[in-house]
Amino acid sequence: MTAIIETNGLTKRYRSVTALSECTISVPEGRISALVGPNGAGKTTLLRQLAGLAAPTAGRAVVLGGPPRQDPAYLAEIGFLAQEIPLYRRLTAHEHIGIGAHLNPRWDGEAVRARLGGLTIPQDRPVGTLSGGQRAQVALALTLAKGPRLLLLDEPLAALDPLARRSFLAALAEAAAGGELTIVLSSHLLADIERVCDHLILLARSRVQLCGDIDTLLAQHRILTGPRKDTTAIARTHTIVREDTTARQTTLLVKLNGPVIDPAWAVEEPNLEEIVLGYMSQDGASPGASPGYGPGAARMQAIGEDR
Amino acid sequence: MTWVTWRQYRHQSALAAALLAALAVLLLITGLRAAQVWHSALADCTKDGTCGSLANSPLSLGSPLVATLIVATAAVPLLPGLFWGAPMVAHELETGTNQFAWTQSITRRRWLAVRTGWLLLAAAILAGAVSALVTWWSGPYSALQANAFQANHFDVTGIVPVSYAIFAVALGICAGTLLRRTLPALAVTLAGFAALRVLTSQWLRLHYMTPVTVYSKLTAPFTPAGSYLGVSNGIITPARTPAVAGANVPAYGGIPIPAACQHFMGNNSASLHAIVSCMAAHGYRQYLTYQPASRFWAFQGIETAIFIALAAALLAATFWILSRRDA
Questions:
Q1: Which phi and psi (to 5°) does residue A60 adopt?
Q2: ipTM score for this prediction
Q3: Range of A10's domain?
């Protein structure tokens, strides 16, 4: 299967701050990939570079067979939705559809109208007067109307209520069903994206912690629970991602490198959230750190999520 | 992209057109009246043969308020720079809408080129229309007062206002792209425009071409024909050096009086006349360095070229910044 996105050592520095460091990922065609990580982990930076809005400081990205670039043919294949849902506040949804029609070789304005009509979103009012959720729906519909081969969505679910999230994700899954559309969406809502995503990129501390098909990741990891004991024997064969020790017992998240033989450990299959949290709270962060408040979140938030 | 530009600027264009129409109505009404007064005065003086002294007659061509408004149109070319140029890129960056625009199937360069092109055209049309109205309106005044070359007239007539407007828009776009914020870009546009305009009209313009110097007798001062631009004037000694009042040289109205003529110094007008005659007899002459009225259009052309060239440099910088920097 061909990779739609392939990056190698992609690095982005803003003066003294490193927003993305040595990012090497690969996303095969047709996947719906979840880009997760705490605030300021570099998700937006990565998506902006893939969309060609920002250039890397070092490393390179190959997207749809070439580097992201200022080229109408490349841009026509990319659908990008920024986190702040930027639309012209004084223009109506209808006028935005007109703009898209004039700026894109492929454009399905009818699909936008049908979609917004189905959601009973007024198309003749300035989008600045719509609610945040409605605006997000307009922006999403416009992004899909381009008919891109790669959709890059930065926190598209944040402004939506649970019902709208569900219908939006269903629409995404449907759009990707043909296997020709690849989607990368960043989100904090693991439970939501677990339903539709089949690929995961985990960024933390501006580095890639995990990248791969979710099924493979699930198969590679186990949760081991046992009496409090020395873990060096486990660490010799497997990679301990995270270790939680209480007075009585030790719980380990390990990346397997073969079967676990020691019968003292109870072996369980983790769910995606346990794996993600395990990697995000590495390096001595407090156990049970929730997504969005993981290590580095406070530090990086000051620098600005949108960079 | 043209359609997109029109969609985003149609309200502002309508506002500009309405203001222009209001100005046009005002200037047409007052201008027609002034022209009428002027032509009847011309007809009268031709009959009497007194047209030579028309400039000194108390002829009123209209309200001085409108004349003030005419001088104030010097600010018109700045307005497109402030309201169209400065926000053009900066406002998109501020609201993040550039991320929408620049991920459609169009390159940033093309986006910038089309938008900039239309805004420049609109600004040129606006400034050109106002300038045409003002030039027509000022006809009788210029004829009466021979002031075409004076800064407050030169700057609002002919073709220079068009180049000022093009420069203002280019400066606004460039400042907005560089600073990424509308308000600072507005401030830079205002300050930069005012600074360059003052610099050119008060100093640079005097030197576009080598000025003409005419020496004349003190008793028969030389006045160039038509509206000229004075660079300097004064009195020269018989040794052809400028006469400068020194600490121990008696002076009369800033003019150093040679020893031979000092005995004429008194305090009535008869003595002034005697001093002037005496100095003329001793070889003192006066000079006038000026740009003749015939150079009016050459100067309009030179100044236009300067502003257009600067605008081109600013736009080139904008393209360079926009295509290299992160969105």
A1: -145, 160
A2: 0.83
A3: 3-215
